[in-house]
Design goal:
The protein is 53% helix and 15% strand. With 429 residues, the protein is an alpha+beta fold.
Amino acid sequence: MDEIIVLHPSIDVGSVLFLGIVSILLLMASAMASGSEVAYFSLTRSDMEDIEGRNDASSRRILDLLSNPDRLLATILVANNMVNICLVIFATQLIDELFIIPSATWEFIIKTIVVTFILLLFGEIMPKVFSQNNPVRMASTFSIPLKFLRWLLYPLAFILIRTSSRVSRLASKSAEISIEELADAVDLTETGSEEEQKMLSGIVSFGQTEVVEIMHSRVDITGVEYEADYDEVRRIIVDTGYSRIPVYGEDLDDVRGVLYVKDLLPHIAEGRDFEWQKLLRKPYFVPEHMMIDDLLKEFQKKKIHIAIVVDEYGATQGLVSLEDILEEVVGEITDESDDDEDKLYEKVGDNAYIFDAKIHIGEFVRVIGYDEDAFADVEGHAETLAGLMMELKRDLPRRGDELQSHGVKFFIATMDGRRVDKIKVEVNG
């Protein structure tokens, strides 16, 4: 390439100065816009606490700008793009005033590559790096020009916010999937183990599970009478190993509080007449059809681990704990205090199980590999396996009864008084 770039023979000094000064100012404005974006949106919690504690004019401006982050971001983006476009236009004119460019190739190199490099280096990269390291200082520095730009560019920023919100809503609607579709996707997913598959299924169904499905029923609640002496309380604690025990008056429909065992530790040596009732904590009641994801939020908010489940009439139906909720996702949680007798089922053959009659029907069908609504046509209002037996027999079950339904054989193995205790189940393979 023989042709070379030379200075323009008749340079208009006034025009060059004007274009040069404007280009430098636009480059500085671009740097301000880029730096302010990083400065304002990289402020940490501690930075915000520091700004709120200062209570000076610049801090108040920063808080005012961040009170509407969408409008602030839209203002910065609009200003940055307008400045960059103007900078390219003025820089191109400045080059035409200064040089005679002999070919299109050199014109492309000078006007596109060189200008872009300068714009990226001084208008984007350097200010963003500096603002990342000094966010509070730069946010304070840019607060005055940003407030002016927020007012000046409000119409354009408003249009940008409304348009982006509309597009976002349309994208969200198109991306929505049902719980059933998500469950099918989980079923098709190949995971490393059966435990991982169960955990994914638990996460999918978590928001669709009611408290009544995971609670310990009323007959399984171990409580303490309000009038019991301290010796009786200690005996119950030792026998059960529970860390939190409901305390009731006349019966379980009159729950007066929850006794936390840790509250008794400073009084462990007290005599039988010790007034342990003064240590009771207020009970937390929840409706039986409350969703467990909502209950988990309440547990976190109130910092409690146990709730009494009541029906529409206020009668106690059962008890639910934080552990019961977590087990819906991660599976059975056991520790050194758990006995094998506490398990709700035991596999005794290829297609044979021994179930605790109090197991919920939903858990029962998952164990035997049936669909969730497999027994929907016969279960009626039953919620437990024992209730399903009553629906199938249409009478009170008795030890030795054999029933069949949907390819499953049920054998009532043991009774606890009039209550069904253990049920043997054989699934036709």
